[in-house]
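From the methods appendix. Each design record in this collection lists the tokenized structure first, followed by the designed amino acid sequence. Records were kept in a plain field format so they could be parsed without special tools. The example shown here is representative of the layout used throughout.

RECORD:
FOLD TOKENS (211 positions):
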């Protein structure tokens, strides 16, 4: 039996697989796109789908194709994903550099060992195009720094995230996320998502422990 990389999911037909890859913060270069196109043509991938989390899924792969496809694609497979808006580099409304912050979040936390999967959103202003308020961890830029959010969910039990701290510098926000993930790792149940953990603990308990 072939050992498949994490992030490969058997499809409805019970025969083929889907592979999710994660462009960092949803950013792509022309070379990336050409590589993906070359791989898709080489393996006759029937469907390519952009996900709600700014990832790319290749659907309909045979079992023996999964490994080679993962090796040839320019992005990592699986991991926690980081969704980001264009931020103040490109958007007229942006007040913080969401792309730079997202790159740091991706580098530090996309492979974090935690009890359950993480979805992270980095928005450069209050319009919140990266859906930061409905992500396990979110950042929203203001003119005074970053607001750090925890415990959001866009699932069937939707939940607006709690504010963990406001007016944080980039380094302060990243440090607070690291401390929160340590706290979550040490106290949550296996497979307990961050929103359920926050509902159980309460934001005031978490703030007292970390802020």
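DESIGN:
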């Amino acid at each position: 039996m072939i050992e498949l990389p994490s992030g490969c999911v058997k499809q409805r037909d019970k025969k083929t697989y889907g592979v999710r890859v994660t462009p960092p913060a949803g950013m792509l270069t022309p070379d990336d796109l050409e590589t993906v196109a070359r791989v898709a043509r080489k393996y006759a991938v029937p469907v390519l789908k952009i996900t709600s989390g700014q990832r790319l899924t290749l659907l309909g792969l045979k079992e023996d194709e999964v490994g080679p496809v993962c090796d040839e694609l320019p992005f990592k497979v699986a991991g926690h994903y980081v969704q980001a808006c264009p931020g103040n580099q490109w958007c007229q409304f942006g007040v913080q550099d969401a792309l730079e912050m997202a790159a740091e979040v991706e580098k530090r936390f996309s492979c974090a060992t935690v009890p359950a999967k993480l979805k992270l959103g980095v928005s450069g202003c209050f319009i919140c195009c990266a859906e930061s308020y409905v992500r396990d961890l979110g950042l929203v830029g203001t003119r005074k720094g970053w607001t750090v959010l925890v415990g959001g969910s866009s699932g069937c039990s939707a939940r607006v995230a709690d504010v963990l701290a406001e007016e944080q510098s980039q380094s302060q926000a990243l440090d607070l996320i690291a401390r929160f993930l340590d706290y979550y790792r040490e106290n949550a149940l296996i497979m307990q998502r961050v929103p359920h953990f926050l509902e159980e603990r309460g934001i005031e308990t978490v703030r007292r422990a970390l802020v």
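APPENDIX NOTE: The domain at 8-77 is CATH 3.90.480.10 (Sulfite Reductase Hemoprotein; domain 2).
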